[in-house]
Amino acid sequence: MHRPRILIVTPEITYLPHGMGNMANYLVAKTGGLADVSAALVSALFEHGADVHVALPHYRQMFNFNIGNLISDELRAYHAKLPHERIHLAEDRIFYYRSNVYSPHEQEDPRLAVAFQREVINNIIPRVQPDLIHCNDWMTGLIPALARRLEIPCLFTVHNIHSLHTTLARIEDSGVDAAEFWRYLYFRWMPRTYEESRENNPVDFLISGIFAAHFINTVSPTFLNELTEGQFNFVDGALRYELANKRIAGCTAGILNAPNPNYDPATDPALPRNYDPDNCLPGKLEAKRALQKQLGLTRADNAPLFFWPSRLDPVQKGCQLLAHILYALVERYRQDGLQIVFVANGTFQAHFHNIVRWHGLQPRVAVCNFSEGLSRLAYAASDFVLMPSLFEPCGLPQMISCKYGSLPVAHDTGGIHDTVSHLDLASNLGNGFLFRDYDSQALAWGIDQAMAFFRQRPAVRAQQISRIMRESAQRFTHAVTAQKYLQLYETMLERPLIGG
Prior knowledge:
Layout: E1 5-9, E2 13-16, E3 27-29, H1 33-47, E4 51-57, H2 60-68, H3 73-77, E5 87-90, H4 93-96, H5 109-128, E6 132-136, H6 143-150, E7 154-158, E8 165-166, H7 168-173, H8 194-200, E9 203-204, H9 205-212, E10 215-218, H10 221-228, H11 237-248, E11 252-254, H12 280-295, E12 305-308, H13 319-332, E13 339-343, H14 349-359, E14 365-368, H15 372-381, E15 384-387, H16 397-403, E16 407-411, H17 414-419, E17 433-435, H18 440-454, H19 458-475, H20 478-493
Helix pairs in contact: 1-20, 6-9, 9-11, 12-15, 13-18, 16-19
């Protein structure tokens, strides 16, 4: 029996791979956690001896930029050496000169998605002849329908709930012979015939992937529960229905993402002093002093520092909850010297600038555009991280913060529920402060709980922070994530990935 051949289809990937001696050494196209998970999966599969292949768009400009700027810190840390013939780049001019994975102009995204999938369908799948296909997010949503037509087991991973629509006519005019598998696509209205549906019945990319795939997974178990149980009124009813159908059929899973392994305070070059669980407080203190100096905050070693790490998006991230209580919060803890640092872009950033200017909070509150180095320094410098998200498919900041010894204050939802538990000093358990209601007063209660912990003796805090850092380093890893995907692949194939 031959080893099962796995094809991972992804629009994003990081640090894949090192040691090939050509441009493919520097394939880095990243928007979020999907890129890291894709890289981790390919690495783990290859290290386990699996016959793994990866398909992604040929973003020539991004790949050449990575070579020219030698951004190979991550690449050097990546030890798998995937042979060149296992990397399959989808060729189309629409990818060549891009500087971002997705377009800021939404009308261009269907063209990007169809061009990518056309090459995968017409060229890459016939060349690879996979035993299993793993597709990721809406940009690969047509491929599960072809996989079902070809009777190839297909896993579809839902990383977020964004989707887009286009017609069969546009799909076919772009070079995809969808007539072969149109019955397995999901249309806005119930399709009667191919001819009737072709011009005027849009195809939903994300729901098509869910509808046609043999198995689906979300990037946290709780988010899967929330979607199928209808806890969010903004979720498309058809999406919820199709997820529920898959769940009833026993064809769903929730698998957490994990942060990039280079988020490690023991080795992070962005920190003034590296630290580990055994010397966390001195290391975090030096980072706090450096951050306060850099941002013009009041220099105070004993000031409790809260960090906002996520984009300032009021639809998902709950930044308006903090805006409602920001001034009152700073006033209530004036004697403690409470400080808040935002390292994030987004539509709501201007509101925080206005609050800071109006109330003269500059020595206590800093609002900064995102930069990788400043964000890493803030993880290390902060005592707490704020994540009052309305929903969170997975979330990485709460995992990163725990690795750096900064405890999350977070809304109990989605991936946060699966990764954060309320701190219990008496039982020596927990790693943060959860609040259940999505409102400003609940967030304020969570911050009060964090402040109560901050007022504990330094020895008590050091013991808990050290424990949380150790547990997080073991728990939030790509190896753990990849192993769960490997197990799911084996379930779908009904045989081991490593065959004789």
